[in-house]
Amino acid sequence: MIITTTNEVSGKEIASYEGIVFGEVITGINIFKDFGASLRNVFGGRSQGYEDELMSAREEALAEMSQRASSRGADAIIGMKMDYEVLGTDNGMLMVTCSGTAVKLA
């Protein structure tokens, strides 16, 4: 599945538009990652636990969106946009959403 942030696929003609598709992932950050991140917040440095969780959530959201586009018979997704949001009363949840237009290529 071709996924692009542009409104076209270079060198390809769009034969039909199959609708907007979405991928959503909401994941919790566990207490150990929170503790490690709080230490890094004080002492500096990168939080590998948060980075791994973010990367995983992003990949899952893209895979879900691709599957939904495939179920519509699409070959590509154009105009893809991705958003991140922190949720929960203690900001303990991470939401990653992506959307784009599923298209069939000629």
From TrEMBL:
<dbReference type="InterPro" id="IPR002765">
    <property type="entry name" value="UPF0145_YbjQ-like"/>
</dbReference>
<protein>
    <recommendedName>
        <fullName>UPF0145 protein FA707_09635</fullName>
    </recommendedName>
</protein>
<dbReference type="InterPro" id="IPR035439">
    <property type="entry name" value="UPF0145_dom_sf"/>
</dbReference>
<dbReference type="Pfam" id="PF01906">
    <property type="entry name" value="YbjQ_1"/>
</dbReference>
<comment type="similarity">
    <text>Belongs to the UPF0145 family.</text>
</comment>
